[in-house]
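FAQ
Q: What does a multi-component entry look like?
A: The components come first, one per line:
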Amino acid sequence: LLSRSIANWLLRRRQLSPFGACVNRRGGASAALLTDESAPERHSLDRHVGLLYRPEEADWQAVTRHFCRPELVRLFDTLGQRALMVRRPALEIGERLAGHAGDGRPCLRFVLYGRRGSGKSLQMGHVAAACRRRGWLLVTVHNAHLWMRHSRELHESAHRPGMFDTAGYGCIWLRHFYAMNQEILPGLRVTKELSWNAKESTPAGSSWKEVIDYALARPRYSCAAVQFLIDEIKLGSVPMPTLVCFEVANCLWWHRSGIKNDAIRRTPLQGEEPPWRADITAKQLTLLDAFKQLLDSDWNNGAAVMSVSPQGALFDRLREWMPRKLLGDEGFAYLDPFVPVYVEPYGPAEMSNMLNWYTESGWLTSEAAATDAGRAELAFLSDGNAGELLRIAGEW
Amino acid sequence: MTPTGKLLLLSGLARRLLAAPSNHSLAAAGYSNSSSSNSSDVWSIGEGGVDDAGAASVSGRRGASSRRAGFAGYSAADVAAAAAASNTAGFRSLVVPGLTKEAAKPPLLRSRHPLTPRCGRMKPAHSSWPSVWPTARTFHPAAVPLPVRQGRPNNATENAGISPNKWGNTELIKVPNFLHLTPAHVAAHCAAIKHLCTPWPKALDEPGVIDKQLPLRVVTTDYLRSHHSIRDIRARRVDLSLCLDRLVKLDKRSLEKLLCLVSFSNFAKVDTQFVGSSRVRHLRMWSDRCPWRFQNYDYLIYALSALYSQSLRHESWESGKAWIDNQRYEFDGSSSQKKLAKLANKPATNAVTHYRNALIKLHRQPENGGTGETHDSLRQYGRAVEFLLGIGKGGGGGGGGPVKKLDASSAQQAGQTKRTTERQAAS
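Then the predicted structure of the entire assembly, as tokens:
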């Protein structure tokens, strides 16, 4: 990140003056900085790009909070206020979804890609909040790559022989799903009979809440519950459109994981020490495979927005961040045709607005941050990366 | 050597040099056989009388030195002759070689410089270094007229702190010298074989001609080591390169098989260069697996022949080749093409063309005509997908009929890209 020179950055942004990129905003007018439009679905490409908005409390608690990094949540708690930037990728996806998704149309797929810290998850959060306000059902997965790094409870699956259940993560996800869709869930009904085992089953016509409650009470069946609900979505029994948000989707097709299968021995990789146990990849985990089915294109009345990140390339420490390299041949073939959406680094206006907000909210405390040279230095050090700027601004 | 010894030596040297005549003949130094002082006086018992002429000549040479007469012959005439021969009218002394202690000869002084240094005696008009040093030979300090030094003294007292000179310097003898390959030598060698050479064909100087006439390019490297051994292990490596267009009889299938075989090997690769708009591919091979250079060259020629002949040969099991075995991305047979059939609404032909071109551009590497994964190719792919599914900005719903967004320029561009890809597919 830091290797790119300021000259290249400025050239890319077509700015000739080194300090022209970050104009210190004088005066206290907040119209240029914040927009009063707090509803994400009403943000438009013409008016609101580059401006910050304050998410509503309900939106924040239910949806957007989950898409933010812990550092950002802590920042908002520290400052006592929340402001998120409206950016182009989320608005473009929102436009496509509004025009062409839902209403029985085939599932559209969007893949957000960009460097680490460029803001992919927050863009997904913006899209998710907008869809939630439109009344869509939200299925969001945030920690798939973490599910593949650690597993505490791993059982052989009963409902999918040959695969493994992660009961704990299933329960956590069901709770999170319920909290996110609390208004919608009471209206949803199961159309098929769900048999948990030879003796117990939930009849058709039960509400989704019953299914979730059953699974939370019997964690062994949490992954089965997730699979059943996803089957329902794919069948089309859900009256409203569904948005699937999957962070770090490339972990679904990754060949490594942090979970070892003691029963299977594999050929050792270079420099690996014994014992050489096979990894249990996402293909063998029922929970992840269930969400992978939602990313397919064979169901209607919904859309999928996912991001690819080197965080999903476990144990490889890849510097790649392009989608085809991260997804691999198999992942690309599975998701094809999808629309890749690039989350760019901050432009001059966006950077300027962000610095202004950091200054106004009191996050940037040093005097140097108020000067043109200081702002230019912040812009240079972060290289337009939102996450880097957040970290660096914490030191100024 | 003690200073006294040195002095004695010097004085002995001085005496010798002063006493010697100017031509530095060995006779003056006392080495001459004929001037051995008592050899003419040696009488072996049982031998005949002294040759008068010899005695006379010897005595003449001896000059005024007096000799004691030894036991003469048996006859008075002999005695008289001997008496007449000797300067003194006395007797010769009996000298038995090996027993008689001869007069102390001056010590054999192994002079470091019995002669003046060679560089002082060389005459430019007659000096030809190639004739002095015609072939490779061990260093000889007397023959090489250069004040060469080699070695490093360990401290300031060893050899007065300066590098040892060439006399008796084993380090100079151990290392190889190239005194047999001076420019004078090289010129003489070239002159000797020049009549066997033909002039360089001028036509080969034009660019591109030499690659056409002599397509096989073999590169070897020689190394020079300043070390006990001048051998270098890297000198065994041989590089061979060949333009793929020069391999005749290679049809599309054979060329693909050759590229596939090359991709398996760890000593061959195919380089692609773009000269203008045309693509030039070179097959490059290298070998250092054999200990000697000519062995590596033979191996490469063998490997090239095997590669060529095997790529021309088509086995029956090659018909089982799958889509994944293709050397470069092919849209036909790919899963993307199969997915088109599963689309809800059948897409328009030009949408499929856009999609196909975008996929080819995205997947194929630059040497195969694509661009690989870049922002541009991803953006083009995204636009093609939107067009295919009908979700462009101004597109109609559901991915149905033709989208009105296309204008003339982009249609032309689409046509051009299609033609380009077909040309490459045919190549």
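Q: Is there any commentary attached?
A: Sometimes. For this entry: Residues 118 and 144 of chain B are 8 Å apart (CA to CA).
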